[in-house]
UniProtKB/TrEMBL annotation:
The keyword Nucleus does not apply. It comes from the Bacteria. PROSITE patterns: HTH_ARAC_FAMILY_1, HTH_ARAC_FAMILY_2. Keywords: DNA-binding, Transcription, Transcription regulation. SMART domains: HTH_ARAC. The lineage of its organism: Bacteria, Bacillati, Actinomycetota, Actinomycetes, Propionibacteriales. This is AraC family transcriptional regulator. It comes from Nocardioides immobilis.
Length: 256
């Protein structure tokens, strides 16, 4: 999705964890990203690739941001990047550093050559469609895909393993090899992602109940652990930008 946001002053956003990989193509300046609280991890480039991460990232800006952001599913990572999501888990990198197809490495330059938003979106769409069309068709094992879908819905790991016919240990190995996180970590982030989509739309106690947290206090603890701030802080500082269609929206990196 395209983003074009004026914040009014330089600042830092929180990039929140999710079940998809984040691919950002900035327009006005290189995107500067680091792990929250770790200045020595700062990465700056004209593209940004982030794998699954159970911790917030810090996205630095000079008062405004424009570009295109994509949320790549686990299967989409293989089709677009030619890599399993596990290859990028916990990393902050870009298309020049990562071993990705040539059309993807050329995409930042082609995007900058486009003069209008329709042209930019068309460039991105054509590139991604071509990559998918020419991919080797390799995707996650059917059992892993089914397991991830069930884990996202909150089904217990033991039950999911039984459904797909694997031991819990075997399932954990397969999910970790595909995603770079364990089934429990994936499920934890999926629940957080669901809560993020409801926050600001229904009361916190209802968010907790709908998403499977034991109570509102449990929700708040998990939010602080994964987002680096409380739900009320995120609502106060970030929710208006999410509503306006700022970078990240309800998928991938949300910003605080």
């Amino acid at each position: 999705m395209p983003y074009d946001v004026e914040f009014g002053a330089p600042g830092v956003h929180r990039g929140l964890p999710g079940t998809s990989l984040t691919f950002v193509l900035p327009l006005d300046e290189p995107l500067r990203v680091s792990w929250d609280g770790k200045a020595d991890s700062l990465h700056s480039a004209w593209s940004s690739l982030s794998g699954l991460h159970p911790a917030p990232a810090a996205v630095h800006h000079d008062g405004s941001q424009r570009g295109v952001q994509l949320a790549l599913t686990i299967a989409g990572a293989r089709a677009i990047l030619g890599l399993p999501a596990a290859a990028l888990a916990g990393t902050l990198t870009d298309v020049d550093e990562a071993v990705v197809p040539r059309p993807l490495r050329e995409l930042p330059g082609r995007l900058h050559d486009a003069a209008t938003w329709p042209q930019r979106i068309s460039v991105v769409d054509r590139t991604l469609a071509s990559l998918v069309a020419h991919s080797d068709g390799t995707g996650p094992q059917v059992e892993v895909g089914h397991a991830l879908a069930r884990l996202t819905r909150g089904v217990r790991v033991t039950e999911v393993a039984e459904e797909v016919g694997y031991s819990r240990r075997r399932l954990s190995t397969l999910v970790r090899d595909e995603c770079g996180v364990t089934p429990k970590e994936f499920q934890r982030v999926a629940r957080f992602e669901l809560a993020r989509g409801l926050l600001g739309r229904v009361p916190l106690a209802e968010v907790a109940a709908r998403c499977g947290y034991s109570d509102q206090a449990h929700l708040s603890r998990e939010w602080s652990a994964l987002a680096g701030c409380s739900p009320t802080t995120w609502l106060r500082e970030e929710f208006p930008f999410v509503q306006d269609g700022g970078p990240g929206g309800d998928a991938g990196w949300d910003h605080d």
